[in-house]
Design a protein that fits this description.
Blueprint: H1 9-12, E1 46-47, H2 59-67, H3 81-91, E2 98-101, H4 104-115, E3 121-125, H5 130-138, E4 142-146, H6 155-161, E5 166-172, H7 184-193, E6 199-203, H8 219-223, E7 228-233, E8 246-249, H9 252-261, H10 269-280, H11 282-305, E9 309-310, E10 318-322, H12 331-340, E11 343-344, E12 346-347, E13 356-360, H13 364-379
Parallel strand pairs: 1-11, 3-4, 3-5, 5-6, 6-7
Antiparallel strand pairs: 2-8, 7-8, 9-10, 10-13, 12-13
Helix pairs in contact: 2-10, 3-10, 4-5, 6-7, 11-13
The protein binds pyridoxal-5'-phosphate.
Pyridoxal-5'-phosphate binds next to helix 4.
């Protein structure tokens, strides 16, 4: 499936329109819809709509963040050297091959800008993360969406979308909003079949949450390839979503090309310091993963027990839940019902999944409140 180009006439007369008109394609982009943060009548709703870390963030990261208060007048290090060194050591990779961004979202945007020109295309799964496509459209490129049968990336469907104008493939493993993942043998098969001119971006935003021993985020593949980029974020496992810092591990030539267009001060002093401290706080990371080990299967089992369709198994920090189309029991009605009880979950109409809701695994009390409310909704 591919999106057709917008009608020409809207753009024919940009010089004579009598007002500034955005370039072709901009007005066809659907702006990113973030997870809801407010529920009427609740000062502090339970937010399970944005895959944030319910444990908050590492205290060591918070302390490091606080030290930045004395440096607010100083531009940050444009190379993010302290984070670069810390990640290079932790993952045993070459520091000069790292790209830092204002969240990994910015790394995706930079890759799109570096590789896509009008007429080129980017390939992703049909439920691919919205930020991938927004950046591609902004480059006036085509976005090709490969079918995801059973909510799972299908390598053959991806490959069927590739042609000689394909410059990038984005693959989040595990995926958002599906939570499913594909084994590394499939990632390798995809890479082997791609023309060497196509960049394969492996988004590992949820990779840490996949506890299967066979899972591989692709760092080793990237190490020895000229066309693989692996991205990670501090927003999820490390709980630093507010600070906006993520990174990509790319072939040196790609990292250097991206650096030509990257804004120099795109990660802040506070973000850099907190990220280094978070990376070093393994106890916090372990606690976050243990929470997942207990409550992800519990939520899956409880919600399935209500007769709802939990997609998966999820390997991320959320579950995707399918609702009946029956009036009174739909996903939209469930979302409103939960919101009226102070529970925020994610609607997915803009992902083409109007019958599904995505729910972030929370603390014990959150998860129990969610299941109780869903039981009330289904039982009514
Ligand atoms: C949350 C998320 C990210 C991380 O985004 P940041 O910009 O680093 O906060 C990346 N990819 C996917 C699929 C996500 O859901």
């Amino acid at each position: 499936m591919s999106d057709s180009a917008p009608p020409l006439d809207r753009f024919q007369d940009r010089s004579t329109a009598g007002k500034p008109l955005p370039k072709r394609g901009i007005l066809d982009i659907h702006a990113y819809v973030p997870g809801k943060a407010k529920a009427e009548g609740f000062a502090e709703p339970i937010k399970m709509s944005a895959n944030e870390n319910p444990l908050g963030s590492s205290e060591k990261a918070q302390e490091a963040y606080a030290t930045a208060e004395r440096s607010l007048h100083v531009y940050p290090d444009p190379r993010a050297t302290i984070v670069r060194q810390a990640i290079a050591e932790r993952y045993r990779i070459e520091p000069e091959r790292l790209i830092f961004g204002c969240g990994s979202d910015e790394v995706f945007a930079l890759l799109n800008q570096t590789f896509l020109e009008p007429g080129d295309n980017m390939v992703q799964g049909e439920y691919g993360f919205a930020a991938f496509a927004i950046g591609a459209y902004a480059c006036q490129a085509e976005v090709r969406r490969a079918k995801e049968p059973n909510f799972r990336i299908d390598v053959d469907e991806l490959l069927a979308c590739v042609d000689d104008r394909t410059r990038l493939i984005f693959l989040a493993n595990p995926g958002n909003p599906t939570g499913t993942w594909i084994p590394f043998s499939e990632v390798r098969r995809l890479h082997d079949a791609l023309p060497p001119s196509v960049v394969l971006v492996l988004d590992g935003a949820y990779g840490e949450f996949c506890r299967d021993a066979s899972f591989d985020d692709g760092i080793d593949l990237a190490r020895n390839s000229s066309n693989v980029v692996v991205t990670h974020t501090f927003s999820k496992l490390h709980g630093l979503a507010a600070l906006r810092i993520g990174w990509g591990y790319a072939p040196l030539e790609i990292a250097q090309a991206v650096d030509r267009i990257r804004l120099p001060f795109n990660t802040s002093v506070a973000a850099q310091r907190a990220a280094v401290a978070a990376l070093g706080d393994e106890a916090f990371q372990e606690a976050s993963l243990e929470l997942m080990d207990v409550w992800r299967p519990w939520l899956t089992q409880q919600i399935s027990g209500l007769g709802l369709d939990v997609i998966g198994p999820s390997a991320a920090n959320f579950v995707l839940v399918g609702f009946p189309k029956r009036p009174g029991k739909t996903a939209a009605e469930a979302e409103a019902f939960l919101s009226s009880r102070g529970l925020l979950v994610r609607q997915l109409g803009n992902y083409g999944l109007p019958d599904h809701l995505r729910m972030t695994v929370g603390l014990e009390a959150h998860n129990r409140a969610l299941v109780d409310a869903l039981a009330g909704f289904m039982g009514d």
